[in-house]
Specification:
single chain, 238 residues, Ribosomal Protein S5, domain 2, 5-stranded mixed β-sheet, 4-stranded antiparallel β-sheet, 9 strands, 31% helix, binds uridine-5'-diphosphate, tRNA-binding, tRNA binding, tRNA processing
Length: 238
């Protein structure tokens, strides 16, 4: 039994509230246990300079934790005058994950900005941000299709993410903060509906881990991401 009574392969309760923010073309509040992230998708009618004239669009992401989202106040990045390394790594991961399931040539010369704001952190904020922002992006793109801005849905696949890890020798999925901060091994997995891997970030924080342990974590992550994608589908398609 885990700290919060879950089984090893049990995800935390997940909830996604769509159309959470009025002005964004797509927006959700995603709750994964006590982790809460607002994800918005907004259109900008231009592409970054390196894509000008390439007849394609772009999808990019920003991520931030609100000062009150953690147990000790987290100063805003802008107040420290630079984006910290963790924030940069996470926002680039979110952007890469979403771009991997979008046909950018169908977007037109525009950028979809994904903004992920963590309002409460309890482990797994980056994976919640990826799962939630896919839904926000899907909604924004559906709106664009309905308005005739794009001819067809540029989405090629579903994508979702979760964390896996080893805690007291046991492989676990979807670690809460208490588990995460005591885990021997910590890994984030991003996968598509087809079970293809987009990205894996695995770290032996307390000790090295074996290939056998890696296999166990991969299996646990794959089975769990399938459940999360089923949940995204129910949320989006009813
Ligand atoms: N965390 C925190 N302050 C920070 C960074 C992280 O309190 O500056 C907590 C937060 O609960 C977060 C957890 O530590 O969810 C794990 O952080 P990690 O960097 O592994 O990213 P995450 O699991 O949120 O993607």
């Amino acid at each position: 039994m885990r700290i919060d009574g879950r089984k090893k392969n049990e995800l935390r309760p997940m909830a996604v509230t769509r159309n959470y923010i009025k002005h964004a073309q797509g927006s959700v509040l995603i709750e994964v246990g006590d982790t809460k992230v607002i994800c918005t998708a907004m259109i900008e009618e231009k592409v970054p300079p390196f894509l000008k004239g390439h007849k394609q669009g772009w999808v990019t992401a920003e991520y931030e934790m609100l000062p009150g989202s953690t147990n000790t106040r987290k100063s805003r990045d802008r107040n420290r005058g630079k984006i910290d390394g963790r924030t940069m790594e996470i926002q680039r991961l979110i952007g890469r994950s979403l771009r991997s399931v979008i046909d950018l040539s169908k977007l037109g010369e525009r950028t979809l900005w994904i903004d992920c704001d963590v309002i409460q952190a309890d482990g797994g904020t980056r994976t919640a941000a990826i799962t939630g922002s896919f839904v926000a992006l899907h909604d924004a793109l559906s709106n664009m299709v309905n308005k005739g801005m794009v001819k067809e849905m540029p989405i090629t696949n579903f994508v979702a993410a979760t964390s896996v890890g080893i805690h007291q020798g046991e492989p676990l999925v979807d670690l809460c903060y208490e588990e995460d901060s005591n885990a021997e091994v910590d890994m984030n997995m991003v996968m598509t509906e087809k079970g293809e891997i987009i990205e894996i970030q695995g770290t032996g924080e307390e000790r090295p881990f074996s290939k056998q342990e890696l296999e166990k974590m991969l299996a646990l992550g794959e089975e769990s991401i399938k459940k999360i994608i089923d949940f995204q589908k129910e949320t989006l398609l009813g």
